[in-house]
Design a protein that fits this description.
single chain, about 160 residues, alpha+beta, Heat Shock Protein 90, 4 strands, about 45% helix, extended
């Protein structure tokens, strides 16, 4: 008697699993190509815009990974006195005063943090904002940490 092999997934199941991954990769490549074309045609202004978007994503991801379980994650954007003020707040552990300046350095990681990143995220944020000569920083609040930066607006 011939015994048939039993597979965990049918071909149809595999296609349903793989198809979204393929679509995601196609979209990622398309967005990357659009970014490249925008930067090559618009020059430095587009590069600054792409860097700014990446930097905001970095701040949000960092805050999300450091918010305490069940804690608050708050994004704020205000237009005031000719500047756009952006801040991201995460409820959780405060940054020790002696580490406030260190967090902007390449490869710095806080040993107390539950999240173990590469130590490059905030260094990239600092570099992008410094290159644009923008005001930025971090401050400990009563029950969490707030990162912020400001961009001049054009009327």
């Amino acid at each position: 008697m011939e015994q048939r092999k039993r597979y965990l997934f049918t071909n149809r199941d595999l296609m349903r699993l793989i198809a979204p991954l393929i679509v995601e990769q196609i979209l990622a490549v398309t967005v990357g190509m659009a970014d490249t074309m925008m930067v090559s045609s618009a020059g430095e202004a587009a590069t600054s815009g792409v860097s700014l978007v990446d930097m905001i994503n970095n701040l949000i991801i960092n805050a999300k990974k450091n918010v305490q379980p069940g804690g608050i994650l708050k994004l704020c954007l205000m237009d005031e006195n000719g500047e756009l003020h952006f801040s991201v707040y995460n409820q959780g552990c405060l940054i020790p005063k002696e580490n406030i300046k260190k967090i902007w350095e390449k490869f710095y990681r806080d040993n107390r943090s539950a999240y173990r990143g590469s130590g490059l995220g905030l260094a990239i944020v600092a570099q992008v904002l410094s290159m644009q000569k923008l005001n930025y920083g971090v401050k400990n609040l009563a029950d969490g940490v707030q990162f912020y930066f400001s961009i001049p607006t054009v009327k």
